[in-house]
Structure formats: C-alpha cells, structure tokens
Specification:
heterodimer; A: about 180 residues; mainly alpha; Arc Repressor Mutant, subunit A; 8 helices; B: about 325 residues; alpha+beta; Jelly Rolls; Phage tail protein beta-alpha-beta fold; 3 domains; 14-stranded mixed beta sheet; three-stranded mixed beta sheet; 6 helices; globular; RNA polymerase sigma-70 factor (chain A); transcription (chain A)
C-alpha cells in the first residue's frame, strides 16, 4: 500500500507524500505518551511545521523514518517535560516520560523502525500473530477477537501475553532493560 | 496487577484501579518494568501502517496546506483574504490531490479555480463554501471557483458525484459535464458523467433538477424524485428508478442489481483504472446482483463472482490488466 519514499532532492518535492504516509503513525506514537488527543495532534503538527519551514534546506542523512521518529519522540519528550499538569496526571506522565526516555531507538539507528517491528511480528507463531495484529493494529477488543475467532477469552489473553513476551525479546535493543536501577524521583 | 496494565492500555481501567496500579508501580520494580515495556512496545508497533492511515492523513494535509496558504496571502493580499479558498475538505481514502489555485490579480479579486481529484478505487467528501456537499466517486474530478458568483454557482464535473446542494433561490447551482448540464436550486442527486465514457445519467433523490444539453435550459428535462435522465443515441431521455442501492458508493459499497457481467466489468475498469479482458463467453449469458466493498479491491469482487459461476482470472501486474477465462 505504501510505497518506499526516497528523499533524494529535498523534502519540498515529497512533503505531501511524507505527510500522508506517516501522519497517522506519528499520531499513534505521540498518543502513546501524550495524554490528550489534542496535545498529540499538536506534537505531530509541530513536527510537520518544522519540516515545512525547513523543506528547502533540510538535508537528511539518515533514513527518513528514523528522522521522523526522532522528531516526534523529541517533541513528545519536550511536551512531557514542560507540561505543568494538574496533580492528578503527574504520576501518569512521569511514567510516560520515563518510558519514552528509555526508548532507545534514536537518530543513529540504522535500521528502519517499521521493518524492525514488522520482522519481529512476522516471527511470532501464526495464531499468536493473528491475534496480536487484530488487537494492536486493528484495535479490536479481546472480547471481539474471541468472538470472531471463536476461541475463549482466556486463549486470547494467553496468546497476547506470549506475543508481548516474544516481541519483547525480539525488540530488546529498543526497550528498557536496567529499570530496577532507576528510581522515579 | 498485570491484568491492570492490559486494562490501562485498552482504556478500560477505572480511576480507582489506575490509582492502585500506579501506587504498585512505584514500589514494584518488576511491575514497573512490565509497564514501561508494554508502553514502549505499543509505541513501536504504532509505526506499522494500517489501512485507514492515509485516508485520515489526506484530510489533515489539506487543512495543513490551507492554513499555510492563508498565512502566505495574509500579508500582500489582505483585502482578498475573504475570498481565499474557504473550502473545507474531508477525504476518506485518497491522497493524490490536485489542488491548484491560479494566482489572483491584486487589483480586483478574480475568480480562481480549484480542482479536486480522487484516484482509482477511492472516494472523497468535499464541502464547498456555500454549504453544498459533494461526494466524489473514484477517478472523478470536480473543478470549482474559490468563490461563487452572486447569480450563479457553477462547477465542472468529470466522473461520478453525489450532490447535496445548499438551497439558494437567487443563485442556481449548475453542474456542467462533457455531455449535459444540470441546473438546480437545492436538492440531492447523483450524476454519472465520466469524460470519454459513453454513459451519462443523473438520478434525483430529493427536490427538482433540470437537465439540458448546450448553453440554454429552454428545452431542459425537469425531473422529480425517483426519476432519472440518461443518454440514448445522444439524446436525453427520462426514466425512473426504485432501487437506490447504486447510491451506496458514497458509503464505499458498489452495488449491482440484476446486471449483465459485461456491465460489472465496465464499472470495475472505470473505478479501479484497470483493463479487464473477458474471454469467457459463457459469462455473458448471466446476470448478477451483489454488493462489494470498494476498499476490498477489484480482485475481491472477481473472487466473489467466481463463487456464483466458475471462471478463472489472471492478473498481469506489469500491464495492469486482468484476463478472465
């Protein structure tokens, strides 16, 4: 469905295509850390604004996805760090901030994040992968998956936890490891 | 506690449980590790594309561009800002947008035209600034001015569209197509008028419309709801319809009601921009009825039809061509 984007030349010629291809994914990503939909949209909007303003001069040396990933990650970090929030969200945001700070995929990563994750998912056992994709990518609830596949809720839960465990091993380079050494405050 | 993490990420957690979970995370390092890992795993999987991604983004891109364009106009052409395109467009599944604006003249706000096109296999909803909404079917182009004149609202259509025209007695809404023109005050109706395609028809759902060829509407055909006009030997002919399923394309469904196989093939070629070579003569004897989801694509339609009367088909990706045997 999505064609690979080559960014030879400038961002200018490819701005529309980059926007359409990556907007939704970046929004989904920002949404994971930023608490409110509106703020998540602002984070992504800011990223594209930056790209737009620099479209004539920007010269990206790393892969485009890595670049966009860093932009949206950093913008989300800024948001979390600077957001003066009501006491009720403080704890939640602290965890989100901590998680994002430890997300190790950075500008220097050579692999394309989309491929890395897709490969990891591909390695899951078939049934497990099917359930994981329905849950995570199609956004179905466990109950709905159980009904559709005519299996028990328990099976769905088990398969999901297997999927998460396996993915965690596959993607360990990008996930926090030494958590017990870090305290929240 | 671990099931609370699942609940949290599916948005099914209660305020009380959330408090409980967060308190536990503060003290339990393993639980915290689990939480942060699931959080980041979710974020990483966000980068896997989904089917709806691009459709959502196209609407957003247009808003983005619109905002940038208005800003660019704001300084030199302040007085024409009111005319700057105020068309709000929501798009469902397209991204090849041609939105060209001819540069307005500074002294006198000239009419600039905007053009909007949908690619094959997709559709779009446009809102014009007079409040009229237009659904555009696959491979259709609507050309409209960035502001309508006082006495007339004129647009050009190449393709299929469903109009819900905002009522304005003083300024009739005129749609010109390759084969005929349609004049209305305010109604709901469908127009099928692809350039270079022999078929033309317009079907009225609500209100009244006039259909005519050429500049003058003196000899126009007036139609009322459930009536339609089609082209026969170059002449406009009035008829009627009782099944409105063909309008389901707005919802992304292509419906066929007791039509010959060749008719379906023709529509598929048109909507999906593909060549279909039909070599199975037997199929031409049968008539088909059915509803298909636009986004499932042309192959899915053929696979379903295969189940009714068996035939085989091969797709030649290189030449964008399907051969049926």
């Amino acid at each position: 469905m999505s064609k690979p984007i080559s960014i030879e030349g400038s961002i200018r010629n490819n701005f529309d295509r980059i926007y359409v291809t990556y907007y939704s994914r970046m929004l989904r990503f920002a949404r994971e850390y930023v608490l409110f939909e509106e703020d998540a949209e602002n984070v992504v909007q800011d990223v594209f604004l930056l790209l737009w303003e620099k479209r004539e001069v920007l010269d990206i040396q790393v892969s485009l996805v890595s670049y966009l990933f860093s932009l949206v990650k950093n913008r989300s970090l800024d948001y979390l760090r600077h957001k003066v929030v009501a006491e009720e969200y403080k704890q939640e945001l602290t965890f989100k901030l901590l998680a994002l700070e430890q997300l190790n995929y950075t500008l220097t990563s050579e692999e394309d994040i989309e491929k890395v994750v897709a490969n990891a998912i591909d390695k899951l056992p078939e049934r497990c992968r099917e359930i994981f994709l329905k849950s995570r990518i199609e956004g179905m609830k466990y109950r709905e998956i159980a009904d559709e596949l005519d299996i028990s809720m328990n099976t769905v839960e088990n398969q999901m936890s297997i999927a998460l465990k396996k993915l965690r091993i596959e993607l360990k380079d990008y996930l926090p490891l030494l958590l017990f050494l870090i305290s929240v405050k | 506690m671990y099931e609370l993490i699942t609940k949290y990420f599916y948005g099914e957690i209660t305020a009380k449980e959330k408090k409980q979970l967060f308190a536990a995370i503060e003290t339990d390092a393993e639980l915290k590790k689990e939480f942060l890992s699931v959080q980041n795993l979710r974020a990483l999987t966000s980068w896997i594309p989904t089917e709806e991604d691009e459709s959502v983004a196209v609407g957003k891109l247009l808003e983005f561009k619109q905002a940038r364009r208005e800003k660019a106009f704001a300084i030199p052409y302040k007085h024409i800002l009111g005319y700057a395109a105020t068309v709000c467009i929501a798009v469902f599944s397209t991204w090849m947008i041609t939105s060209r604006t001819e540069q307005p003249v500074v002294e006198e706000p000239a009419i600039a035209y905007e053009e909007f096109s949908t690619p094959s296999g997709q559709r779009a909803l446009l809102k014009l600034h007079d409040g009229t909404t237009v659904w555009l079917n696959a491979r259709s182009t609507l050309r409209y001015p960035n502001h309508f004149g006082k006495n007339e609202r004129k647009v050009e259509l190449d393709g299929e569209a469903f109009f819900e025209v905002k009522r304005n007695e003083k300024a009739p809404f005129v749609i010109s197509t390759e084969k005929a023109n349609i004049k209305v005050l305010g109604t709901k109706f469908n127009v099928f008028a692809y350039k270079g395609h022999e078929e033309f028809n317009t079907s009225l759902v609500e209100g009244a419309v006039k259909v005519y060829q050429g500049e003058s509407d003196a000899d126009a055909l007036n139609i009322t709801p459930h009536e339609c006009v089609f082209l026969s030997d170059g002449k406009l002919v009035k008829s009627y319809f009782d099944n409105s399923d063909f309008l389901l394309w707005k919802e992304g469904i292509y419906a066929f009601d007791d039509v010959p196989f060749s008719y379906i093939i023709k529509k598929l070629e048109l909507y999906y921009d593909i060549t279909i070579i039909q070599k199975n003569k037997k199929l031409d004897q049968y008539r088909f009825s059915g509803k298909f989801r636009q986004r499932d694509g042309v192959e899915s339609v053929l696979q379903t039809l295969q189940k009714v009367y068996y035939f085989s088909f091969v797709k030649d990706e290189e030449n964008n061509c399907i051969t049926i045997r």
